Amino acid sequence: MEPQPKLQPLISSKRIEAAVKKLASDISQDYRDKNPVLIGVLKGSFIFMADLVRLLDFPLEVDFVRLSSYGAGKKSSGKIKLAGGLSTEIKGRDVLVIEDIVDTGLTTNYLLDYLRQKKPASVKLCALTEKPSRRKIPVRIDYLGFTVPDKFIVGYGLDFDEGFRYLPEICFLED
Ligand code: 5GP
Q1: Which ligand 1 atom is the nearest neighbour of the CA of 139?
Q2: What residue owns the CA closest to ligand 1's atom 9?
Q3: How many helices (H) and strands (E) does the chain have?
Q4: Which atom of ligand 1 is nearest to 110's Cα?
Q5: Are 101 and 70 within 8 A, CB to CB?
Q6: What's the angle, vertex CA 40, arms to CA 79 and CA 172, rounded to 5?
Q7: From 51, 94, 100, 103, the catalytic residue
Q8: Which residue range forms the structural domain that includes residue 168?
C-alpha cells in the first residue's frame, strides 16, 4: 500500500468563508447590472463557485469548462487541453472566469486566450488562490482570495489524485 500523504492545515473554513464574502461583495459592485456569465474551471472550482454564486443577488449565468494540465499526482504534464467546452454563447457578454488556483499561469492563460477569441464584451479572472512564486506567464488576477506558498494544496474542491476535494478547509501536503 502507498503511504497516505500527511496533511497540514493552511486556510481554515472560517477564513475561506470571509474571503468568499469579500470577493462576492467586490464582484457584486462591478457586475450588478451586467448579467455576466461566470465560467467555472472544473473540477477544482466547483465548491468555490457554488459558495460564491449563492452570495451574488443579481442576474447572472453559470457555465463550466474542463481543462487538463495535470495528470495524476502533483506534477504538471505541461500540456493543456480543453476537455469539456462551453455551452453558452459569450459573444458580447461580460465573462468572469472562476479558478481554484493559478500556479504557473499556463492553464489560465490558455483559457483566457480561448475565451477572448469568442469576442466577449469583457473577460476578468477571479481566483481563490495563487502561487506567485511559480508563475511562468503573467496572468492578471482581478479578484483574489489568497496567496499561498509553494506547496501542493488540497481541500475546498482541490484534489490530490481525486482525493481530498471534500475537505472544508485548505491544507497542504507534506513532502
Ligand atoms: P497552472 O497551469 O497555473 O500551473 O495550473 C493550474 C492547475 O493546476 C489548477 O487549476 C490545478 O488543477 C492544478 N494545480 C496547481 N497547483 C495546485 C495545487 O497546489 N494543488 C492542486 N490540488 N492543484 C494544483
Answers
A1: 3
A2: 101
A3: 3, 9
A4: 2
A5: no
A6: 70
A7: 103
A8: 7-173
- Give the pLDDT confidence of 129-175 residue by residue, as tens digits: 999 998 999 999 999 999 999 999 999 999 999 999 999 999 999 97
Position 29 in a domain: yes
Distance 26 CA to ligand 1 centre (A): 24
Average pLDDT, the chain: 92
Q: Does some domain include residue 2?
A: no
Pocket of ligand 1 (CB under 6 A): 44, 69-70, 76, 100-108, 152-154, 158-160
Q: Which atom of ligand 1 is nearest to the CA of 99?
A: 10
For residue 116, tell me if it sits in a domain.
yes
User: 49: domain CATH number?
Assistant: 3.40.50.2020
Q: Is the pLDDT of residue 109 over 90?
A: yes
Residue 1 lies in a domain: no
Cβ-proximal residues to 29 (8 Å cutoff; 6+ apart), any chain: none
The pTM of this model reads 0.94
**pLDDT tens figures, 69-98:** 655 556 665 678 787 788 889 999 999 999
